[in-house]
Write a structure and sequence with these properties.
It contains seven helices and seven strands; from the N terminus they run H-H-E-H-E-H-E-H-E-H-E-H-E-E. It is 32% helix and 23% strand. 37% of the residues are buried. It has one domain (2-176): Rossmann fold (3-Layer(aba) Sandwich), CATH 3.40.50.150. The chain has helices at 2-12, 16-28, 42-47, 61-64, 79-86, 104-114, 148-154, and strands at 32-36, 53-58, 72-76, 93-98, 118-127, 160-165, 171-176. The protein is of the alpha/beta class. A seven-stranded mixed sheet has the order 3-2-1-4-5-7-6, sandwiched between helices.
């Protein structure tokens, strides 16, 4: 059913991930939304209305100039540059969207830099993780980012779990393993 819904979105919209990320934000209502790689701010501009604060991080200053919304903060640079700005949001980022450099090395670095700042129940969305053809796995498009979800699921520490929507260009959701709603009493036996 999800695959058919994605296919319907793809036929109407060249960037179906924008609507999906916005719908997830509407459900989660994140305190803080963080987006790495804003392109022309199409996603962050739509998602920001569902968040108290939205932060866009991009190495392209021109891309950041398209941000609209009083609650959108921008950081020119990568996540390494953004770390001091993120410190005040440590543990408050409930939703993040990584759509920067699609090479697995960069994705791994972005994920590792972002992890300490997200809340325990955060969802981290990663774009371009299901290239539809071999051609789309080139560095011009999705690159080798499709390898990252399996790396998350196979990790020794098993702190995170990833699920990928298998429809081009792919969207992966990563969450902490074993999370429970905040109202659950944690009783050790």
């Amino acid at each position: 059913m999800i695959k058919q819904a994605l296919a319907a979105l793809v036929s109407k919209d060249r960037s179906p991930h924008i609507a999906l990320v916005e719908q997830i934000a509407a459900l989660i209502k994140p305190r803080v939304y963080l987006e790495v790689g804003v392109y022309r701010c199409s996603t962050i501009n739509r998602v920001a209305k569902h968040a108290s604060t939205a932060i866009g991080v991009d190495i392209n200053q021109d891309a950041l100039s398209h941000a609209r919304g009083k609650n959108i903060e921008t950081v020119h640079g990568d996540l390494n540059v953004a770390r001091p700005s993120l410190e005040k949001y440590r543990g408050l980022i409930d939703l993040a969207f990584i759509d920067g450099d699609h090479r697995i090395e960069s994705l791994r670095s972005d994920f590792e830099l972002l992890s300490p700042y997200v809340s325990n129940s955060a969802a981290i969305l990663i774009h371009d993780t299901w290239p539809g053809t071999r051609e789309y796995s080139s560095d011009l498009y999705c690159s080798n980012s499709y390898l990252f979800p399996n790396e998350i699921n196979d990790a020794v520490d098993r702190m995170w779990s990833a699920a990928t929507l298998a429809a081009h260009p792919g969207l992966t959701m990563v969450t902490r393993r074993g999370i429970l709603p905040s109202w659950c009493d944690q009783v050790s036996s």
